[in-house]
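Lab channel / #folding
Pinned by the channel admin:
"Please post every new chain as: sequence first, then the structure tokens as a reply. Keep commentary short and put observations after the output so the thread stays searchable."

First post following the new format, from NK:
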Amino acid sequence: MFQLLAARVSYLIAPAAVASEPTFEEIFARSRTRPRLLSQTVEQADNAARLEGLVAAKTSAFAGRTNETIVPVTAVLLSWKRHRGLDLVLRYVAKHPFVREIIVWNNNVDVFVDRDDIAARLGAAAPEIRVVNSPNNLHDLGKHYACALATYEHC
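Reply from TO:
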């Protein structure tokens, strides 16, 4: 009995193999990776495809107006997860000529959102894009900070 108890206690207090601390480069590399996409059900995939089609077909009601008659607006998008949805919203918002600037506030410290990547996906006609990768999750406060950074009066 004593040997069994001693074996259990030594197991609990014996120093375990200590994993080495990750280097700065490893932490940096992990923070720059894209999130792993979860698998979708057939219904979710069908809904996503339908929504993609609706956004692609949508045109702005302001498309025929000249830029001089439109009040410029800064669109603020708050991001934490669901980056696939962020791409869809960005494409939808970028179609409107009154949106002259888009600020994406990323609250997820584990994911790096790249401005050049977004601009490349939106194309040459995209408004000015600014991305803030917040060092902490500021929750809803991030959208207010982003609005304070806006170039235009309306956000």
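NK: Residues 42-57 form the longest helix (16 residues).
TO: also worth noting, The two ends are 73 Å apart (CA to CA).
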